[in-house]
Structure formats: C-alpha cells, structure tokens
Amino acid sequence: MKNKKRFLKVAMSTALSIPLLLSSTITSAGELTQDENGKNHSSIPEIEVIDGMTQPVFSHQDAITERIFVETTVDSDRDGNFDRIRVDIMRPKETEEGLKVPVIYEMTPYRSGIKNVPVYDVDVEHNAVPKKGKAGEDSGKPYAAYTNDRFPTSYDNYFVPRGYAVVLGESIGTGLSNGCPTTGDESEILSTRAVIDWLNGRANAYTADGELVTADWTTGNVGMTGVSYNGTLPNAVATTGVEGLKTIVPIAAISSWYEYYRANGLVTAPGGYQGEDADNMAEAILTRANPEACKQVIEELTEGMDRQSGDYNEFWSKRDYVKDAKNIDASVFVVHGLNDWNVKTKQFSDWWNALEKNNVPRKLLLHQGGHAGPTSYKADWNTMLNKWFDYWLYDIENDIMDEPMVDIQREDRSWTTEQNWPAVGTVPTTLHLQPDSTNGTGTFSLKPVPNKNKQDQYFIDNPLIKANELVTNLETNSENRLVYMTPALTESVRISGTPKLEIRASIDRPVANLTALLVNYGADKTEIITRGWMDVQNLHDKTRSTALTPGREYTFTWDMQPDDYVFNPGDRLGIVIISSDYDYTIRPTAGTKISIDPERSKIILPIVGGPKAINWE
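Request: output the structure for the sequence above.
Response:
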C-alpha cells in the first residue's frame, strides 16, 4: 500500500451518513425504501461522519460479543496439530443487519496474566556460564502491564460506537490459546497474522463447540495497535505484507528483539528488569494449560539467544523486523516515549529510518513519557487516532495525512511539529575530548587538539556504583569515571538523532563493558539525557566477538540511544564515560582499568544547525 487504494470518497467538512461498502452477498438488507418525498434510502445501517471523523452513533451496550478460536498455520508445541488462538470480538449489532465494518485488532501475550519467573544473575564475570538467580521484587515481570481479558476495553468503548469491530487476540502459549511462546519469531508472527487471514476468508475459526464460524460482517480492512509487546506484534505482522492489514499503530514497540536485550554485542537489560532475557519472557507468559508441553521450546530459546557472547546471530535475525521493512504494505503511525528505558528509543528510531527508506506512509509522535502510551501527554490523542483509522480503514478524507509528519513534545510539555525526524537541519557535530589535569574534569573542542604530552587518562570499573552517582559530585575526583563538559552554553542547543562515541583506549584485561552517558549539567539539576553501551570484544561489529590483547590500544566505536532534547542557555553539556552500568549491564568483579587517549577520542552529536549552533562562554 505504498499508494493508498481507495474504495470510498467522503467529504471532510460536512456532516453526512454513508453506507459501508457491501459484499455482493447482501440481499434483503440492501433493499431500498422511500420517504414521504419519494426519495430512495437504503435500509442498511449507516455510519455518520462529521468533519472527517466517524461519530459515536452505535450502541456499545447492545453490541455483539463472541469468542472464537482461529486456526493458525503453525504448530509451535509440535503436537501434530495447528495451534489455535483465542479471539474475542465486539461489533455493532447493526452488523447483523448488513452493516460491514473494519476491524481494530490487538494481539497480546498478557491477556491471561504473567508469571513471576527466575531471571539471570548479573553479578557474574563476562562469558561465565549463566546461572538462574532468584527473582527480586521487581524482576521477572515482562515489560507491559496485565491486559484485560474481557470487554470493555478502551478500544471498544471508543471505536465500536463509531462503527468499528474490535478484535482481541491471545497469543500462542498463553491463556486459552495453545502452542508455545517463542518471543517474537515466525511462529508468533504467523499465528498473529492468522486472525487477519480469517477476517479476509483465508483461514478457519471455530466456536468452543467446534462449529465453523466466518467473518461475514467485516470489510476485511484491519488496523493493528497496542502498547509494548502488543505494539511489537503489529510491527512483526506488517513485515509479512499480509493482505487486509491496512495500517498499524505501534506504541512503545520493539522493532528488533536484539536491541531489546543486547547493545553492540553486550548483554543489556530492559530498564527496570535487570537479568531478564528472551527465554525468561517466554516462561513468564506461558500461561496455557499443560505448560510442560513447551519445555523443549524454552530450552531452545536459551540456547539460541547466546547470552554468553551477546553477539547478533540467526536467533536474533529471526526477531529483527527492521531488516524486513521492505515487505510492509500498510501505513504506520509510530508512537514512543522519549524517556522510555524499557523499550528504548533505538527501537523507534531504527524502525522510522527503515520506513522512510522503503517509502512507507507514516507518522511519528514522540512524547515526554516513559514506557507508556500517549494518552496522558497528548490531549487530542483520541482524535488523532480516530482520524488515522478513519482515513486508512474507512477511506474517509480528512486532514490527518496533510498535517506535519512528526509531533514532538518538548521538555516543558508543549508540542511542536516537524516535517521529519531527525529534525531537518541536523548535522553530525564532532566534539573532541580535551583533558584538564587541574580538576579532573575535561572539556571539549570543536577542532582536534594535539595531545603533545601524550596525556592518557584512566578510570577503573566499579559495577556497584550507579550511574546517577557517577555523574554527580564533580568537585570530588573519582577513579571510576571520566567527565568532559562544556562551559555554560550561551544559546539553546538541540540534539535530534543518535549520538556516537569513538574512543581510543587500552584495557588491562581481555574483556570489559563500556558505557557512555550524555548529561545535562543544568543550573537546577543534573540529568542523564541518554546512554549507550558496548562489549569491547565487538569492536568490529555486533555479529562477532574478537579476542583483545590486554594493554594494547584499540578504537572502540558505539552508538547511544537516540533522543530529541534541548539544552538551554546556562546548561553545560557533558559526557561521562564509565565501564559497567549497574542497572543495565553485566556486573563483573570490580577493578578493570581502562586507559583513554583523549587526543584520538571524540563524541559525534546530532545537533540541529551543526557546529555553528553550539557556543559556550
């Protein structure tokens, strides 16, 4: 759907009622009646459109609800039968009278709850054989809240009265569905797609009593949405190019499972869930009857994810949707929080770039929240979503695609718009590290500064000191960090995109963590803006580890999490370099010494306006 295929034209600025496109099977429901003036009217129920938006004219209370089981094309539990997934449906009662409606579809593994399972011990040496640790108070809980397993939900409350059906699926291996959870691979993708196939007459579904049931009440146009895992599955299914999927709205969603559990070859954790990995996720959502049927599947996840090396491999490639964006035939409305440290910002950034590369119709909304939807941040979110679904599922002409492509919430909670993201005019700007021996805190230079005295700097890893502590108390020298910062900025400086580090360094042992923190040293508070990590053994790429020689210098290059942030006049922009990051990385024994050559080290920041925009006193 690179170019939108239209089946109905509706004026945007007038109030009117229209019948939906009907299949040729409609008979008596399609008969015409005459009013007292002799004008013909269809007896088919109609939706109402005002100013380009469907209106709430159908009764939610009288809506039809039903539960079915869709047969998929996968046998993930290997019992010789295709998996069947539970699906609950709510649709206007008028669909029994000839009204045909599009579908808003959410699939989730959380509908029947989650289990508190053991996660990995992270207080281990690099490449140590993993052992299962005891789950702490906040561990073992996958990254989305429990999802209501019955109506009503916010989706049906809002959209059923406006002439939509809402379909809620339960992912394989969870609740009343059979099969096994596989954390985002082909089995989960194809089983989720099966619902769209059923809605378009290409798959079978049954009642609990085994009676065959068809979806003769729908146009077959489907929009998928959801938050977190529930938004990840739309990304995945869209890459299959399935017919009938017209649009997706992924919110706080994953586009690469590798980037969720790894970073530049390093085993990392989603924020708040230190020690969790792909196999823990599957175990936690394994709520089906007879979960022992999935024992081998879980074991294969443990083996395939290769927690020891952290390298990108075939296991992760099967769970990388970015590389398959070329197959997308639906529009995409991406929503993400700029402060989401669970599903980190690289997930939306890489996905957005892939959508642009493949000319996918798209829109982006970035809010100031964390791992959450935009409802609390964007007052007109329901209106935007309403118009988006109306445009792509009902083919109603409105202004949603005429608006600027990107909405960004600024730090003061105001909203601005952009034509694209990163912002137009963003230029990679290099800041060279410049040591300062007088107070232990270095500075930056926009031009390379010869290090005539070959003044190396070093820091020593202490994984038990948290990053928030290491970026503060600059008046006290610390052997566990290196700090570089600008003097007070004289004008606002906006970064928009992905910061990168290039560090020339030697390490006194063959393996270590590297962490960089971008910090705003403001007048009122010190704030970590973004961060990034790498395994020094992956100095060439994330697919292979290379043995390093202790004491030998190497160039280590890695990216940080993308961001869009404005430093105000008077703020000082800083970079803090440490080794282990307590909340995100493996925490080996303290004592690793890392020596840096500042002359050959730098940070590249995506600055709107480039070098001319960054000035300090």
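The chain has two domains: 15-320+330-418, 426-613.
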